[in-house]
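Ligand: uridine-5'-diphosphate-xylopyranose. Inputs:
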Amino acid sequence: MASVTVVGTGYVGLVTGVCLARSGHTVTCVDIDPRKVEMLRSGTSPIYEPGIEELLADGMAAGRLRFETPEGGWRGLIGDVTFVAVGTPMAANGSADLTAVRAVVEALAREADRPFVLVMKSTVPPGTGQALKQRFLSQAAAPIAYVSNPEFLREGHAVHDWFHTDRIVLGSDDTAALQTMRELYADIDAPIVTTDVTSAETIKYASNAFLSTKISFINEMANLCDCIGADIDAVAEGLGLDSRIGSQFLKAGIGYGGSCFPKDTRALDFISTMNGYQFTLLKSVIEVNNRQRLLPVVHLTRAMPDMHERAIAVLGLSFKPDTDDVRESPALDIIPLLLEEGADVRAYDPVAARVALPAGSRRVESVWEALRGASAAVVATDWREFVELDWRRVREQMADPAIVFDGRNCLDRTAVEDAGLVYMAVGRPGAHREG
Ligand code: UDX
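Predicted complex:
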């Protein structure tokens, strides 16, 4: 078994480390944050991801998983296969911020004391690998093979997606390194796409851009359904049964959030423009998504032109259920807009409790505290807790006009309306009865 190092213990790095340990590899996870390393050594995961703490405990108990910081230098930390899984956040101009990636690759190249395979697991724009090889690896003290190995993990399902991936993508011009990677992933039953570095990087962006396109497409269809009285659920069902289209990622709502789709679509748009191509369709996907999250505010202000002193409950802060991640979550854009309308906003999320809320809004500890006396409620995340609410009790708690805006089309509209509530959604006919 190859010795493995994973640099970065965030949503991607930690999953990579614990899953490779589960597959039998000896893994060293490295993070510059000593507090994170201490947390992990104690068996506590810094991220909320189903199944991760069990794998963490199993890996450490089996002696296949350890956590270190690089403060003592990288010697002794570099594995036969060393993954780079540090963050590539979005810069102000929409490009990917590669500061952390460059810093790690530079350090690894500088302190390399033996040949190893450097695997880029972080999402980096097409062309990054070639540039890193040229700038850092070509000067390294030992031969370093470069492999692009993008991840396709969904938050909340990351451990499952690791072991049940639809494909493994490997980009490299080093045949020995590619063979090493095939052996590393020998226990994963998935087709392996082998190509050059830049094409592998492009596959990652193309995947996220296409999934984002499906979402913005179904959201525009839902907006049209609202105009023509069609039912988006039926449209999505009929559409998705076409095997060429597929039913996944056809759920209409207030748009995609998260740390990937918004960042990757903007980065691909940036890279396209910088390389002389106007990616028109992608620009529209981004524009549609930016405005989709405004729908609850548009419809609630129509129903209640004067929101001053009205309490509004925003249910769900994470960008989707089963995660504590609030990055680019629609709720964080909806809340300030409701505050601007003078509303008294109470926000509740079952898990995402650490997020800083916009000034003027209040986080409450239960869905009932959020709903008590509220004139309207926005379901911004399809947490099961909201889907299974006792709508008669909700009606008792709320004040007139008692509107429920179902931002994820996840509620049983009949149950909500039978309880005497005003139901609004995205593309569900007759749902936008103004209160
Ligand atoms: C995504 C990709 O799925 C994954 O392959 C990639 O590696 C990282 O980005 P993630 O961002 O974790 O994963 O979540 P995902 O489940 O894809 O949902 C992304 C966003 O799209 C969420 O805000 C979700 O609410 C929204 N979404 C998803 C829709 O609005 N409609 C859908 O039908 C599906």
